[in-house]
Amino acid sequence: MGAFSNSLVVPARTPLRVLVVDDDPLLLEVVAIQLEMLGCEVASADGGERGLSALESAEVDLLVTDWQMPGVDGMEVVRRARAARAGEGYLHIVMMTARGDEQTMRAALEAGVDDFLEKPVQPIALEIAVASALRNRLLHRRLERRNNLLSTAHGRTREALDRIRADLAAATALHERLLPPEGRIGALALSRMYRPAAVLGGDSIGASLLPDGSVLFFVIDVRGHGVPAALDSFHLHHRLKQMRPATPVALGNALATVNEEIAAREDDSYATIACGLLSPEREEGWICCAGHPSPILLIDGEVNMLEDGRSMPAGWFSGTEFAPARFAFPRGARLMLYSDGVTESTDEAGEEFGLDRLSALMARTRPMPLAQAVQDIERGLTSRRLGAGFEDDISLLAFEHEKGDDGDG
Description:
Blueprint: E1 17-22, H1 25-37, E2 41-46, H2 48-57, E3 62-66, H3 74-84, E4 92-97, H4 102-111, E5 115-118, H5 123-178, E6 183-185, E7 188-195, E8 203-209, E9 215-222, H6 226-243, H7 248-263, E10 271-279, E11 284-290, E12 296-299, E13 302-305, E14 310-311, E15 325-328, E16 334-338, H8 340-343, H9 355-364, H10 370-385, E17 394-401
Parallel strand pairs: 1-2, 1-3, 3-4, 4-5, 11-14
Antiparallel strand pairs: 6-7, 7-17, 8-9, 9-10, 10-11, 11-15, 12-13, 12-16, 16-17
């Protein structure tokens, strides 16, 4: 049988489980003894049918089968063994054959054979086959462990992603609840458009009815996008609503307070803010734009840009003063505030929507109800994007002076 004193086989913690299939009882016994000397757990099967039955009822790491057997031959055993183990566990297959021609070996490889043993089986050849099977089983088990770890990590990542998505959905719903409802606010009609570039945006829109019947309004555009910008816009929205400035002086002081709070962070945070008051009873308004695009005022079909009351963005420089400017807001007048995401939105050719186009649309839609006019402007924006998203958050807030019931937004 041969000696195994200088064995190539490294003992494994779990012995290799081997099934030997052959129709020659003597060969079965010889090969089984040699495998046991190599530390394997060995089972034998006399012929192909019994070999397949043994495979179904036992865990096998290494299958050693003869090629030529009556009835179910070795090639059929290999094919059916591979089909039964498809996608499951580990099975190393070695075929014993006296036929060493190229065509035979190629057919065996295609059937699923991993290695060959020529008859008569030499102990060193069998030892090499066992060593190869042990090494491949070790690699297979390592791969299984890594796949299990990856599957666990993937599951945890998926759970974390689901939680993040749920949190983002909740934050998005919260942000949407901050938006003033469309319709009437006091004696004014109100309409708006809000489209964040991402799930959460850095823009915010606010409007509140004050005790004297005037309306506090603002559009905030925080630097950046996503969660950090959204958190900043939430904070600034609530700060302005909390301070609730009701006079021009209070309006300037509120913006100065916001400016100092942002500047005190000593980072690169800042925000552009258009904030003001509308008094339908006195037919006037007050506006202050901290680095924000100039609002558009439409009176009797004439478009005007409110250039007064402008100053640096909030957070740029500590000590910045904010002085609101007065403007007339008679019956029938419309006021539109917007973020630069509106005018700087580009089409596929890179052409910006532009202030001129926005002003022209505002003038052209004057005969329409305010909500319809804003919808028309929104259609003009989205049609140029052809279904693509916006590069920046889109915010627009519009008022029209007309008598109505009191309300709050």
